[in-house]
Amino acid sequence: MMNAIVMTGPGEYGLQKVPVPRPRKGEVLVKIRAVAICGSDPKVFDGSYMGIGWPPHFPFIPGHEFAGKVVELGEGVTKFSVGDRVAGEAHCGCGECINCMEGRYNLCLNYGKPETGHRHYGFTYQGAYAEYNTYNVKALTKIPDNVTYEEASLADTAGTALQAIKLTGIAPCGYTLVIGPGPIGIFAMQIAKAIGSRTIMVGRRERLELAGRLGADYLINYEQCKDVVSRVREIAGGLGVHQAFECAGSDSAMQQCVLAARKNGKVALVALPATDLHMLPVKTMVMNQIHVIGSRANPSCTRDVLEMMSAGAINARDMITHTFPLQDFETAMQTFVRRIDGAMKVVVCPNND
Ligand SMILES: [Zn+2]
Ligand SMILES: [Zn+2]
């Protein structure tokens, strides 16, 4: 048996003893060492996403930003050995549909059908807020020796930023705007800077300050700036930015990204809004030929972000403000949700050996 945070209904969850799962063909059993709380987790726990099937049933164990150690191999596994340190990602495609075949397993056409092999760990399939979980080897990547489990648990977040960066086709030099200095926004800024772009971060308070400490070239506090778009365009030589990342999820941030982009600029929408009802400045999009791209999750990004952490090109360590044992899960969740003591990434450690 093992300890796990088990949801028994919307808003109802707690520590329980449940059986340790057994690895099936193509899977390994992972002893979970670190799970980062994601911005989506509070909404999974309170039932806000039940309309889209997250979770699909009760009891259910959420948690998807994890790292741990392989402790048992299922039938046919050759990619990993017992003892390997691995980081995970939430999406595991069926491997057979056209999107999976083309590498876009975040958009698997068999989404939510476990009988096809599809998994969305922590959303439609058992997740990582537990001492152990089984994973298909496709969802796991070895961690470089100089990256800790806690840092590696941020690979899912950093990968989500990298995927948005890839979709904009970001090139060296130029100006990158990020609105929303949450974990994904700060990683997008760090990756853009690592590639060689000048970075402008829009936000406020401690999170904007953290973005500055982690290397943002220009900070704009929107509470003190009358006209964010003009200020961004001014910084970017009057022409606007080459690419903009919307990581705040608000109408005003979406509009500012489009209005601050230069002609033929790219805008990636990264935050997941609650509904389709948002206003974009369509005339400007047409006249300035602005490319607006939706970006979901992090296909084929985990290895690269772990390498960037290992090389020191991005800093995950300073994004982690708090760590808690699994037994203190509720304190960890409240610290994250209420941003107590400037909480940014809060990491839960189910096994502290
Ligand atoms: Zn996440
Ligand atoms: Zn598929």
List the helices and strands and how they pair.
Blueprint: E1 2-9, E2 12-18, E3 27-36, H1 41-46, E4 65-73, E5 85-88, E6 91-92, H2 98-101, E7 119-120, E8 132-136, E9 140-142, H3 149-152, H4 155-168, E10 175-179, H5 183-195, E11 198-203, H6 205-213, E12 218-221, H7 228-235, E13 241-246, H8 251-260, E14 261-269, H9 282-287, E15 291-294, H10 302-311, E16 320-325, H11 329-337, E17 345-349
Parallel strand pairs: 10-11, 10-13, 11-12, 13-14, 14-15, 16-17
Antiparallel strand pairs: 1-2, 3-4, 3-8, 3-17, 4-5, 5-9, 6-7
Helix pairs in contact: 4-5, 4-10, 7-8
The structure holds zinc ion (2 copies).
Residues 38, 40, 64-65, 156 line the site of one zinc ion.
What does this structure look like?
By secondary structure, the protein is an alpha/beta fold. The chain has 2 domains: 2-154 and 316-349, Quinone Oxidoreductase, Chain A, domain 1, CATH 3.90.180.10; 158-294, NAD(P)-binding Rossmann-like Domain (Rossmann fold), CATH 3.40.50.720. The chain is 26% helix and 27% strand. It starts with a strand and ends with a strand. The model has no long low-confidence stretch (mean pLDDT 97). Bound molecules: zinc ion (ZN) (2 copies). The site of one zinc ion (ZN) has 10 residues, from helix 2.
Key terms for this structure?
353 residues; binds zinc ion; single chain; Quinone Oxidoreductase, Chain A, domain 1; six-stranded parallel sheet; alpha/beta; 26% helix; Rossmann fold
In short:
With 353 residues, this protein is of the alpha/beta class. It contains 11 helices and 17 strands. The two termini are 17 Å apart.
